[in-house]
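note to self: dont lose this again. the chain is below, predicted strucutre after it. 382 aa total, dont forget to put it in the shared folder this time
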Amino acid sequence: MMSARRKSKPVHVGDVQIGGDAPIAVQSMCSTDTADVKATVEQLHRLKDAGCDVVRIAVPDKEAAEALPEIVRQKPLPIIADIHFDYRWALAAIRSGFDALRLNPGNIRDAEKVTLVAKEAKERGMPIRVGVNAGSLPPIRALADGEMPPTLPERMVEAALWEIKVLNDADFDDIKISMKAFDVPTMVEAYRRIAPMVPYPLHLGVTEAGTPRAGSVRSAIGIGILLSEGIGDTIRVSLAADPVEEVPVCWDILNTLNLRKRGATLVACPTCGRIEIDLIPLANKVEEHFVRRGKILTVAVMGCVVNGPGEARMADLGIAGGKGRGVIFRKGEVVRTVDEPEFMDALIEEGEKIIAEIEAGTYKPVSHAGDEVIPLLEVPAR
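---
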């Protein structure tokens, strides 16, 4: 069972609210050389089209900092400057008009410099993410006689609390936090520890999660555990791939937990010896078509009489096939029976009727909740 969502103080990254009662926001990060304005802006547009709400951009050096004003001028969505070692690049991002900053408390340890950044960010209404990373933590503090060294999650919490105190002492409270690690249990424990200690929204992610297959699984487990516990206000899936590939994985996680919907969700048989239709090609074609149509609805493609009719009944649109014929359902109601060669055309035809009703405002999509069929709260994509 999903836990109630943790209450947090909302912050605004451009026109996107994070925390409070806002939907879980989807993030990614540009992989371009920031100094290459054309490539960076093109990637920002691709990420927006894929469904990103905000995007982080690395600012590692003077050349990148000099490109920031032009990137801001052309940006299609809110952007966050990623700062690790040099506070001057944070100041450059603030003065260029970025929407938010990420500071790594393990890499900028001078409280005076963090305070200077906080003062300028406050003047411009710019939030700061305290971005803790398990791979770049401050040195372990001096221990008392007999004191055991802190665990890795404890060190991550200490790093976050240090920077939060510096920001608070500078009268800065427009904060969000991330506690990222590659190891999923470490990441989960760090977020669980920090969640009751502070009122700020939490950005979830498994850092350096890996290649698309392994990284998607690792991210879905870590992020999914925390979201199911009510922890988390914005997410990023970090993959060793084109960042556009990260975005649908984020949406799949949110779709699966019924936290936010974007586009079609496909329910399909895993296939077994009971299948009596050519299901896999059909499922792929159905998914491609309805994802491209971009409407929030659940489509079921089921290949036998055991689970098929029941699952198809719990979708907006579904087909349960067997022995070369199939029954098409709409919200549990049989609408027609068709031969296998007609499956795709019939599903598209019935799907277009539903889409027309969605566009007319006369149709409410449904989703699974145990054995119930419940209406979905539609959250428009950006």
